[in-house]
Amino acid sequence: TYAPKLILLDISDINCIRDIAKEILNCYGCVDILINNSSMKVKGAVQSISLELDKKIMDANYFGPITLTKAILPNMISRRTGQIVLINSIQGKIGIPFRAAYAASKHAAVGFFDCLRAEMEEFDISVSTVNPTFICSYHRQQAPGNWEASIWK
């Protein structure tokens, strides 16, 4: 058995993900199951959400999970085994008003992992997507002029 090792990762910081994946593979040798369970969302009208915030949400909900998956994937392919799970959102299937950036990022993730599932079949790697309905999550109250305070994490 392995002693647990805490590795901190900001999934929206794309630049550090590959290094974290290398650290994990160096420590344990392989990853049998990768569960991508990250989310960042903001509530607001399309015209009131900045492009900067749209990009931050896309980094956390789309580019982060696919970057981590791509970093772990070669190890799974070489071993011809593994399981990749995306914990996503029902909003990856349907959009609702005032969640455009969030829904778009979740739609993109579903599309990527659907394609990945088909490609990984020949390597006996299972790819699953879970799209739960609305859940209660931690929320910081919005502060005037501080968009980060309106983010759900």
UniProtKB/TrEMBL annotation:
* Superkingdom: Eukaryota
Could you state a single Gene Ontology molecular function term?
oxidoreductase activity, acting on the CH-OH group of donors, NAD or NADP as acceptor
Q: Tell me which Gene Ontology terms the entry assigns under biological process.
A: intracellular calcium ion homeostasis
Q: Which UniProt keywords apply?
A: NAD, NADP, Oxidoreductase, Signal
| Transmembrane regions | none
Asked if Glycoprotein is a keyword of the record, the answer is: no
Q: Name one Pfam family in it.
A: adh_short
Q: Which family does it belong to?
A: Belongs to the short-chain dehydrogenases/reductases (SDR) family.
Name-wise, this protein is: Dehydrogenase/reductase SDR family member 7C
Organism source for this protein?
Answer: Aegotheles bennettii
